[in-house]
Amino acid sequence: MTAHALLLCGTYVAVLVALAIPLGGYCARVLGGEATLLQRPLGPLERGFYRIAGVRPDDEMHWRDYTAAVLWFNLFGLLVVYGLQRVQHLLPLNPQELGPVAPDLAFNTAVSFASNTNWQAYGGETTLSYLTQMVGLTTQNFVSAATGIAVLAALARAFSRRRSETIGNFWADLVRSTLYILLPLSLILAVALAADGVVQTFAPAAEVELMRAATGPEGQVITQQTIPLGPGASQIAIKQLGTNGGGFYNVNSAHPLENPTPLTNFLECLAILLIPAALCLSFGKIVADRRQGWAVLGAMFAIFLPLLGLCVWSEGQLAPQLVELGVDPSAGNLEGKEVRFGPAASALWATATTAASNGSVNSMHDSFNPLGGLVPMWLMQVGEVVFGGVGSGLYGMLVFAILAVFLAGLMVGRTPEYLGKKIEAFEVKMAALVVLLPSAGVLVGTAIAVASAAGRAGISNPGIHGFSEVLYGFSSASNNNGSAFAGLGANSFFYNLALGLCMLIGRYGIIVPVLALAGALARKQTVPPGPGTMPTHTPLFVFLLAAIVVLVGALTFVPALALGPIVEHLQMTGTHP
Amino acid sequence: MHSPKHKPARGPIIRRAAIEAFTKLDPRRMVRNPVMFVVEVGSVLTTILAVQALVGEGEAPFGFIAGVAAWLWFTVLFSNFAEALAEGRGKAQAESLRKARQHVQARRLAERDRHARAEQVPAAQLRRGDLVLVIAGDTIPGDGDVVEGIASVDESAVTGESAPVIRESGGDRSAVTGGTRVLSDWIIVEIRSNPGETFLDRMIAMVEGAKRKKTPNEIALDILLAGLSLVFLLACATLYPFSLYALETRGQGAPVPITVLVALLVCLIPTTIGGLLSAIGIAGMDRLIRANVIATSGRAVEAAGDVDVLLLDKTGTITIGNRQAVELLPAAGVKVEALAEAAQLASLADETPEGRSIVVLAKEKYGLRQRELANTEARFIAFTAHTRMSGVDLAGREIRKGAADAIGKHLKAKGGGLSPDVQALVQTIAKSGGTPLVVAEGSRALGVVHLKDIVKGGIRERFAEFRRIGIETIMITGDNPQTAGAIAAEAGVDSFQAEATPETKLALIRSKQAAGHLVAMTGDGTNDAPALAQADVAVAMNTGTQAAKEAGNMVDLDSDPTKLLDIVEIGKQMLMTRGALTTFSVANDVAKYFAIIPAAFAVTYPDLRALDLMHLHSPQSAVLAAVIFNAIIIILLVPIALRGVKVRPLPAAALLRRNLLIFGLGGLVAPFIGIKLIDLVITTIGVA
């Protein structure tokens, strides 16, 4: 690894942690309903929302009511996006006069944005009107992220309470996370990005003279180019911060107007992990033991850093075949990468975007070296708990912490407890569901796809790679990541439906057990810590937690991976003829 | 004599367990254990496949399928054997207990009078509230309280203790247990339990494991194991369509044989812990029974492992039952020999342990021989609650001993009083935690006897161990705070409650529980019952009252309050053993993947052989070796499951590090070695 790569990754991690500390504290105050700096300017707005909606923010909810509110709210958002797509031809702001979106695609897209997956089976410019994009998708970018934060807040609160029937108010959590966390951060990031050249304008697309005339496919001379413009920076900011990932331009953050300079690249990359990392520390603060937050963050880094190292190292290499052709190996693997970023910054982005359930890209993961490409795929399959989605990554990780505590905790001779809460049958049942459901989505979905004619029809790349594509698609959907492996024709009735269902299961099949868990934990008595308590803030526990995440992820997917990427890799490197 | 202390012979138990391993194959029983049920279904499936291979065209050679099927059956049988072995000891005990219950006839009385009309009824027909007369030689027909009479009772059938005990009406020695025998005199017993709910019934159910309900932790673990099994079931079942797709796109090879998929599934699901889980639970209960403690439920035993506050009665638990005289302190101008002589005289007729200890002290330390006063004109004054003094009137001498205030009052009546120096001595002794006993002759105090509580040997170290593993010890005593504090310091308990009453005890338990602690305590008296009912783990003494026994969730047949400490360890050990074997079982899976995955796809994707880290002989030997390892490890771990992981007095953090290293890392490495060795063996002897 070069000094440049080390410096880049080192700076990235240092700045990430340095920003996560104050932000974590701030988020904890917001979620705790405490006064913050922004209360004065935004407070009237917050209260206005409550008044209009008829919500009393201090009315605490039972976990069932909380869950019902989450589900109704998300169903409402889902229906709005679905409806907008179906009738967009009747609505304004549709200059290209696009027709209604087909029901299956509209369903898939609506689920995708409600569930914070942002899987894109549609081609943006050719399918969706401006209104659908702005009112439907952009709104979901905010509220799907806020839903994740709200569910996490409920879970964290449950740990800090004792013998409580309630876990907070969903509407208050939703409004506060949007108003005090997502909006201000998006504003700051958008201004910073725009200041450094990211497009932010309401001007129409620019027509520019080409510096050198080009020849079209039919021999015609082309002297002009249309450069699409628009309010990019503001959208890009929430796309990165809210682990959404749906790009403003089709090539996402590889586009020079979406991500023009190394600085914007650094900022956008930072934004991917910023809130997920900060929320770990918020969690520590909410449960009144900051070490616990650091431990969870530590476990995430314990998985993230080695994989980052592997990916950066791998992309720093050049395939021996290319070296033989006389390519200078010192620049590393530049295929499919933007020259202004280079291999290190591209590998860093790829690792971060798949560690979090973001899915935005600044390079083509398909062109990565075999080991470099393995990293993003595997990071998704461990369940999007290494940073993961905003809120959702951490609540997933906390479920793994519960499993880790249960598996190892019995060994100290006491009923296992996490943060003073005894882990008993019900908690284990919910945790098992959380681990089981997305895995089932990936495995059963892939099995049906490769066994059915409808599923096989989408595979453009028959053979092992075709299998990998399907596996990747279902992994991405079931874990709410949203990134795709090129090659899978996913806009078909079968895939729209199957992947849509996987996204639903992967999101709400987890939210419901997590909230049930929160309800059960809040009701419990808290056991005071003592020398007989298994500590959950030590390096040993950090290691244990990371090991359980890796082990469960590995044990579940090794057979499938063996038939896809692993055998591909082995055939490519040719260790066995 | 059949008793819990009786150790059943090993041979018959093993023989019976081996037979029961087969009878337990009944799927209706197996379904209670989801992990092993999956293995049984797999065994049946592979057996059918083997038959198919034998009579027609199989998916793999007959020898291979039959080998896998056989070892899958062994896996189930080994697990059943472990369970039967754990149950074996209890079964033997249950039988001897049953004998104690058989054919007992009771004399049911019409009213509470020895001479009332009596009718002969079988014990099984007695109901709560019936009155029965039991005379010497009879077996007591049911649990109850003595309401009249006094008798010596042989309780060895239940406790294993052959020395008879006295049972009498009123007080804390009134409870009798059905199945025990009256040796002398007679008693009238009021029956307290209906048929089928008696102590003996409970005990039989307990040792037999017949009515064994899964404990909360066991249920949680079962759910986790079932969840893991489901994940692995998905991972293995989806491999079949995956392999079909691979086959089609490659145009070469063969689909994965069902036999191999079943083998992979069985190797991956946590069979090691799944197979031993119930054996661990039964063995834990058995350890408790061997310690002569009967628990009403497995839940209580598990709770004992979670306990972090122990309420310990000072007397009997921390100190040996009685105070002893350790020093004689004469008043100014009195010779110590004179004091010793007076103290001895005053105590000669005092049969209390304190009184006896004074005589012994006078003899041993001051060389005074014990004198025979039977023939002299001595008049002994017995201790009464009113005077709170005892003593002797002898040849014109009037010697008294008693508490300082009582003697003070006595002397004042005689025109004397306690001199300042005697009062100072009293103060000094009280401050040091001792009990001062003033000896007076006539109207003058001769000096003070220092009675001291003797802390049990080794108890201090035991408490230190408990502190290290995070268990707080609280001493409960009726003594004043000064005395209590001194003994607490000497015994090394964490805190104490002085001048305790049943109410303050109950309040203490409640406040500890409100703070999230789990509290354990022992008790025997009726006034202990509310506190026993409130405590999370409550051990009643067998000598105690029926009320106490009903309020508690365990009964100690030896009536040894120190036993609480053992009970906590047994509870912890049960949890630890489960955790250790679960960790071991899950860690095992890594190696099994490396053995089976390359073997399963050897034909379709020969490249996957690169994953064969162990360089196993052939795909078939690899699968077989993994299955054999999986079965054998169950048998190898049976001793740990039955004996339990050793409990060490370490803090949780250190314990976790240690056990993770042994069972986590060990579980990761062991199968790599084991599977390779088995592969070597079966290829050498030519099985595969």
UniProtKB/TrEMBL annotation, chain A:
Transmembrane parts of this sequence: 66-84, 142-159, 179-203, 263-283, 295-315, 385-410, 431-454, 493-519, 540-562
Stretches assigned to coiled coil: none
Keyword check for Transmembrane helix: yes
Membrane topology reported for the UniProt record: Multi-pass membrane protein
Keywords: Cell membrane, Ion transport, Membrane, Potassium, Potassium transport, Transmembrane, Transmembrane helix, Transport
Top-rank taxon, per record: Bacteria
Main location (coarse class): membrane
Compartments where found: Cell membrane
InterPro entries reported in the protein's UniProt record: KdpA
Keyword hit for Amino-acid biosynthesis: no
Family: Belongs to the KdpA family.
PANTHER family: POTASSIUM-TRANSPORTING ATPASE A CHAIN, POTASSIUM-TRANSPORTING ATPASE POTASSIUM-BINDING SUBUNIT
Description of how the protein assembles with itself and partners: The system is composed of three essential subunits: KdpA, KdpB and KdpC.
Function as written in the Swiss-Prot or TrEMBL entry: Part of the high-affinity ATP-driven potassium transport (or Kdp) system, which catalyzes the hydrolysis of ATP coupled with the electrogenic transport of potassium into the cytoplasm. This subunit binds the extracellular potassium ions and delivers the ions to the membrane domain of KdpB through an intramembrane tunnel.
The protein's name: Potassium-transporting ATPase potassium-binding subunit
Source organism per UniProt: Nannocystis punicea
Higher taxonomy: Bacteria, Pseudomonadati, Myxococcota, Polyangia, Nannocystales
From TrEMBL, chain B:
Coarse class of the protein's main subcellular location: membrane
EC number(s) from the headed UniProt entry: 7.2.2.6
Binding site for Mg(2+): 524, 528
Catalysed reactions, as listed in the record: K(+)(out) + ATP + H2O = K(+)(in) + ADP + phosphate + H(+)
Membrane topology, record value: Multi-pass membrane protein
Transmembrane segment boundaries: 34-55, 61-82, 219-240, 260-283, 580-602, 622-642, 662-687
Active site: 313
UniProt subcellular location: Cell membrane; Membrane
InterPro entries, alphabetized: ATPase_P-typ_cyto_dom_N, ATPase_P-typ_P_site, ATPase_P-typ_TM_dom_sf, ATPase_P-typ_transduc_dom_A_sf, ATPase_P-type_domA, HAD-like_sf, HAD_sf, P-type_ATPase_bsu_IA
Superkingdom, natural source: Bacteria
HAMAP family attached to this UniProt entry: KdpB (MF_00285)
Protein name (Swiss-Prot/TrEMBL): Potassium-transporting ATPase ATP-binding subunit
Organism: Nannocystis punicea
Lineage, broadest ranks: Bacteria, Pseudomonadati, Myxococcota, Polyangia, Nannocystales
The gene coding this protein: kdpB
